[in-house]
TrEMBL record:
Its cofactor is Cu cation. Transmembrane segments: none annotated. PANTHER family: FI03373P-RELATED, MULTI-COPPER OXIDASE. Its main location: secreted. The keyword Cell division does not apply. It comes from the Eukaryota. It catalyses: 4 hydroquinone + O2 = 4 benzosemiquinone + 2 H2O. Residues 31-127, 136-217 form the Plastocyanin-like domain. The keyword DNA repair does not apply. GO terms for molecular function: copper ion binding; hydroquinone:oxygen oxidoreductase activity. This is laccase. It comes from Mycena venus. Its EC number is 1.10.3.2.
Length: 236
C-alpha cells in the first residue's frame, strides 16, 4: 500500500444516536518531521501527527471530509489518498469511490488540491454498548519504517524482498533495537472499572498480536486474551 502513498485512518464510530446528521471535517495532509520511536524522519501525515486525529461521529451520521493535500517534500510522493480502513471493517456500500486506495478506487489527490470524501456511515459502529468513550480508550497499533516509502518501494522492486519495519508503535510510541528508550504509551485506568478499548491496526503489512501483561479479561470476554489483528482491522 505504501506504493500508492495511501494513508490509513481510523474512523471511530460511537453508537449513541439514532438520527443521522452530516458532520463536516477538514484535514490537511502535510510533511512533518516526527520521531515516534526516537528516530527522526520526514513523514506524510494527516494534520501533522501520527496517529492522525480521530473523527468522532454518531451512529447513522454521514461525513464530509475536506482533504487538503499540502505535501511539498520531493523525497516522498506528493500525491496521496486516504483509505478509511474500509475493506477491513468499515464498509463503503454504494460509495466505493470513497474507499481511498489510489488507482483502485480513485485518482490520487494532486498537491495543492482538495478532495472531498463524502460517505454515509450506514449505521456501522463498533459493537455492543459503550463503557467509556474517551480518546484514552483508543489503542492504535502500527508498524514504522525508518526509510521513506519511495526507498522502501525501490528496494522491493530491486530485490523482491519485502522490507521489515524498524519498530512497532502503540498509540504512536515505540522503540527500535538499540534506539533511545522512548517512553511507552500509557493508558491510565482505575482498578475495578470496566473499560472498552477500541483497537485499530494502522498497519500496511504485518499481523499484530496484542496482549495485556498480567491481566485477564473479565466476564465480558469478547475475544481471547491474545489477539491477532489483520492489517487495517479494528476490534473493540
Ligand atoms: C485538522 O486541522 C485543521 C487545521 O488546524 C482543523 O481545522 C481540523 O479540525 C483538524 N481536523 C480534525 C479531524 O481534527
Ligand atoms: C503548491 O503551492 C505552493 C504555494 O503556492 C507552491 O509554492 C507550490 O509550487 C505548489 N505546488 C505544486 C505542485 O503546484
Ligand atoms: C439505520 O437504522 C435505522 C433504524 O433502524 C434505519 O431506519 C435506517 O434505514 C438504517 N440506515 C441504513 C443506511 O442502513
Ligand atoms: C544492538 O547492540 C548490541 C550491543 O552493542 C549489538 O550486539 C547488536 O548487534 C545491536 N543490534 C542491532 C540490530 O543493531
Ligand atoms: C507479571 O507478573 C510476573 C509475576 O508476578 C512479574 O514477574 C512480571 O514483572 C509482571 N509483568 C509486568 C509487566 O508487570
Amino acid at each position: 500500500m505504501w506504493a500508492f502513498s495511501t494513508l490509513f485512518a481510523a474512523l471511530t464510530l460511537l453508537p449513541t444516536a439514532t438520527f443521522g446528521a452530516q458532520v463536516v471535517f477538514n484535514l490537511d495532509i502535510v510533511n512533518t518531521q516526527l520521531a515516534p520511536d526516537g528516530f527522526t524522519r520526514d513523514t506524510v501525515v494527516p494534520n501533522g501527527t501520527f496517529p492522525g486525529p480521530t473523527f468522532k461521529v454518531q451512529k447513522g451520521d454521514s461525513v464530509v471530509i475536506h482533504t487538503h493535500n499540502k505535501l511539498t517534500s520531493p523525497d516522498m510522493r506528493r500525491s496521496t489518498s486516504i483509505h478509511w480502513q474500509a475493506s477491513h471493517g468499515f464498509f463503503q456500500a454504494r460509495t466505493s469511490g470513497m474507499d481511498g486506495p489510489s488507482f483502485v478506487n480513485q485518482c490520487p489527490i494532486a498537491p495543492n488540491t482538495t478532495f472531498d470524501y463524502v460517505f454515509d456511515t450506514a449505521n456501522q459502529t463498533g459493537s455492543g454498548s459503550l463503557f467509556l468513550n474517551t480518546d484514552s480508550t483508543i489503542i492504535t497499533l502500527a508498524e514504522w519504517y525508518h526509510t521513506v516509502a519511495p526507498q522502501v518501494q525501490n528496494s522491493f522492486f530491486k530485490t523482491g524482498a519485502i522490507s521489515v519495519q524498524d519498530s512497532v508503535l502503540i498509540n504512536g510510541k515505540g522503540r527500535y533495537v538499540n534506539g533511545t528508550a522512548v517512553p511507552y504509551a500509557v493508558i491510565t485506568v482505575t482498578q475495578g472499572l470496566r473499560y472498552r478499548f477500541r483497537v485499530f491496526s494502522l498497519s500496511c503489512r504485518p499481523y499484530m498480536t496484542l496482549s495485556f501483561d498480567n491481566h485477564t479479561f473479565g466476564a465480558n470476554v469478547i475475544v481471547s486474551l491474545d489477539l491477532m489483528l489483520h492489517y487495517g482491522a479494528r476490534w473493540s
